[in-house]
Amino acid sequence: MAPPLLPLNVSYTPYWCEENIYLLCQTFLADPQISNTWDTYCVFISNQGQSVALWNQKKARESGLPVVWDYHVVLLLRPRFADVASEESWIYDFDADMPIPCPGREYMEKTFRRDMTQMFQSQFRVISGEVYLDNFASDRTHMSVQLKPVEEMYQSPPPKHAPIEGKEAIRRGMKTNLMSEFVTMEGSVGFGRVTDLEEMLELCDVRDM
Fold this sequence. Notes:
This protein has helices at about 15-30, 30-35, 105-110, 130-135, 165-170, 180-185, 195-205; strands at about 40-45, 50-55, 65-70, 70-80, 90, 100-105, 125-130, 145-150, 150-155, 195. By secondary structure, it is an alpha+beta fold. Strand 8 and strand 9 (about 150-155) form a beta hairpin. Helix 1 (about 15-30) packs across helix 4 (about 130-135) and helix 3 packs antiparallel against helix 7. It is globular. About 35% of the residues are buried.
């Protein structure tokens, strides 16, 4: 079963992975042909020190070197009904130097290394797409640099669309929870569940369903 292609009008803003993935997830879940066939997950990648090494990223200074992110976000699709061994899960990463989408197991093996020092080892917060859309909120202050009391500049130009507030975040009066409920790898708080590399490899292996 072929995975859905990126929409022709897909929105992408460099360094704003959480919003890029939010909008892609929103588009996929709004399409019944996708939402009735695939389980959609948004995956936050970080660790306690917010310093994780990812290989095969477009921002690498040179081929073969990792990029160290404070956090990163990708979208994972798993077929809801896997009847044959050839079925694949798929990962969408706008910043990867790989095809989009990329088979899940291949993406994981090319992006993360088991022999990496603990300081740069990744943890993963896996959240269902529906929960992410409903609960995510960001006022973008995590990317701001305050220069004067009335002026704000961003480390990287923000998306042109308005800051995102999910319907449940609005109900809770939550203006921003990016860092406190999504990027954090503290398992007792936030949405979804926190896993390690081995569990992510299992999640990406559809034959384990």
